[in-house]
Amino acid sequence: MKYLNIDDKELVPVIKELNTLLADYHIYYQKLRSFHWNVLGKNFFDLHIKFEELYGDARIKIDEIAERILTLGHHPVSNFSDYLKNSSLEEVSAFIPDTEMVEELLSDHKAILKQMKKIIDTAGDAGDEGSIDLIGAYIRELEKASWMLNAWNKNTDDQLKIAKSTRSS
Q1: Are 92 and 30 in contact, with CB atoms under 8 Å apart?
Q2: What is the rounded CA–CA span in Å between residue 133 and residue 131?
Q3: Based on the structure, what is the number of domains in the chain?
Q4: pTM across the whole model
Q5: Cα separation, 92 vs 106, whole angstroms
Q6: I need a surface site. Which of 38, 54, 55, 86 has the fewest CB within 10 A?
Q7: Which residue spans traverse the membrane (predicted)?
Q8: Among the residues of 39-97, which ranges form H helices?
Q9: Structural domain includes residue 99
Q10: Confidence check: pLDDT of 158 > 70
Q11: What is the pLDDT of residue 1?
Q12: How far apart are CA 79 and CA 108, in angstroms?
């Protein structure tokens, strides 16, 4: 792109990886909505709110990723069938226990973070600082969300025993 001072041929791998991330985020977004609608049990209120927060964030990121692809002079993938083909994430039933929902999301986070790191690498090779900056912020935010979900899913009694044993040492 002339106005970006980046060779268009060098952007092709970045676009490919951004489109994969876009597909991942669409699957993740829909999974979050499904979990939000279908969560049951004693943790309903906490998770219903958290899932809505996460899918609101994912919706914003979907738009930003697509707009980044457009900024780089290409068109984002926009068919759900293509998202299903290109994503490393899998659809799952929402009729699972709440702890399994959280484990599923943590697994998705791991895959999404892996994809984001690919983008950082390919964008670095292309000299695409804008994509590096965008995705770097996403990594930080998703790592924090992962930490919080992981903390929620821990067995409190086990964690307290570990904490007590390390304090008394």
Answers
A1: no
A2: 5
A3: 1
A4: 0.91
A5: 14
A6: 38
A7: none
A8: 44-71, 80-86
A9: yes
A10: no
A11: 53
A12: 20
Full domain range(s) for residue 136: 9-163
Burial of 30 (0-12, 13-18, 19+ CB in 10 A): middle
From the CB of residue 159, how many other CB atoms can be counted at a distance below 10 Å?
Answer: 11
Whether 142 is in a domain gets the answer yes
* pLDDT tens digit sequence for 105-150: 999 999 999 999 999 999 999 999 999 999 999 999 999 999 999 9
Q: Are 126 and 11 in contact (CB under 8 A)?
A: yes
Q: How many CA atoms lie within 13 A of 130 on its CB side?
A: 16
Note the pLDDT of residue 162: 72
- Residue 168 pLDDT exceeds 90: no
Q: Can you read off the two tokens belonging to residue 93? A: 């039933």
In a domain, 101, yes or no: yes
**Who contacts 27 (Cβ-Cβ below 8 Å, separation ≥6)?**
83, 84, 87, 89, 90, 91, 108
